[in-house]
Amino acid sequence: MSDDSLDLFDDIEGEEAPPEEGTAPEPGTGITPDEPKVWSVTQVNKAVRTLLESSIDSLWIGGEVGQWTRSRPGHCYFTLKDDRAQLKCVMFARESQKLPVDPEEGMQIRVMGSLTLYEARGDYQLVVQKVETEGADGLWRLAFEKLRSKLESEGLLDAALKKPLPRYPAVVGVVTSPTGAALRDIIAVLKRRAPWVRVLLSGSRVQGEGASREVASAIDRLVATGEPDVIIVSRGGGSVEDLWAFNEEPVARAIAASPIPVVSGVGHEVDVTIADLVADFRAPTPSAAAEAVVPDAAVLRQGLRGMPDRLARGLRGTLRRRRDGIAQTLLHLGIGVERRAGPLRQRTDRGMAQLEREVNRMVERRRQRLRAAGGRLDALSPLATLSRGYSVAQAEDGGVLREIGDFTVGQKFRLRVKDGEVISEVQDLEELDSA
Amino acid sequence: MESSEKPAALEGRLKRLEEILSRLESDEVALEEALTLFEEGVGHVKEAERVLAATELRVEELLASGATKTVEIDTE
Hints:
The complex is a heterodimer of chains A (435) and B (76).
Chain A: H1 3-13, H2 41-55, E1 59-70, E2 76-81, E3 86-91, H3 93-96, E4 108-118, E5 123-133, H4 138-153, E6 171-176, H5 181-193, E7 198-203, H6 211-225, E8 230-235, H7 249-257, E9 262-266, H8 274-278, E10 281-283, H9 286-293, H10 297-305, H11 307-321, H12 325-341, H13 348-373, H14 383-387, E11 392-394, E12 412-417, E13 420-425
Parallel strand pairs in A: 3-5, 6-7, 6-8, 8-9, 9-10
Antiparallel strand pairs in A: 1-2, 1-4, 2-3, 4-5, 11-12, 12-13
Chain B: H1 2-24, H2 31-52, E1 58-62, E2 68-70
Antiparallel strand pairs in B: 1-2
């Protein structure tokens, strides 16, 4: 506050008591006692500003938004009006950057600020610190809807873009605060359901100024490693403002750009964020997100327990479907495996090892027989069968001739018998009635 | 390190198991192939069970440098 304004201020206050007769002019001003004292515009505006600022505390004012403009550095200028009057308002960048979105013309809002005078223009105005809408989270809702329709128009919310989650991820990426409750919840679930996974945590602040960009870059960093099979983006519950980073564009863009499926788990059941809409899967809470990305070990183990049975059934089925002599032989062999393996399956751990040994023995036996025969038959050949009087017909190229359709009259073929080959020729073909 | 590779194979193993089953149940499969598939399937079941037997969840923090460091997260 300059001395000039103080003088004027004092003078204004002193008006009630007129100056005493004979007050001497300041020496050297050249003003005689009879002439009025002349103040400069600057002095007056300074004085009025001081008066305004010192006599009225900051206050809430309600009204309708007139024109709202935002300058390049982020300062916002607008008018607040009712049906009879209007008030110029300014909201500087430091405050306006906290707004989720600029209010639209005609919106009913209330603002908190202090009155001042813009000396250069002589306009009196309200310097605004806070803007609220009549409905508690009106501005947040407006911002949400604006971003949603923007992303929607770009097609980023299309169901067709949703990537399927891996069923059995090996590496789970997690983007959240390293010190938050959300991380503890997620880890607890993964520990219980899928302790074999590896968790790659990409820490980030999840609320406050710039949190949205931090979350986005934490996602980018995970993606850059190429390691996660799926990524959880999460934070625990909080107020609309606490969760706001997940309603901002940077997070939405990072999720949409991720080639790795992203599961969101933000806040509580009722909180739906932009991140939820863009994510490949929306889980209502951090714990639910963890449950969504990994299978339950107990269920998996149960499924595996039934596997040997299903494999054996499949093998037996294959054997049954074969109609030629070779298949018959292996069918017996197969049933043998079944019979021997059956009881073992009751205890999987033990059963697996034995079943495997069983199969290995079987394969090894066949190899030995082949070596003993020294033949060039394919590995299928069950020589034991041949020795019992069966034979195998083979085409010139070595392919096994299984059914009548494989033969043509006059075709030469080889008949593999126990101790050699008989070069043969087809004379006639007779199909069995039953075939 | 074995434990760091095996989990990665879990997805592949279980998928392969499903393939083997559906192949075994199909009409075209030849005997030799069926036996090989059976053998392979049994191997996958064994390995998958070994992976599922893991009890320690590994948590690593991704640092700004791109390196990772193991962290302990207290879930109590």
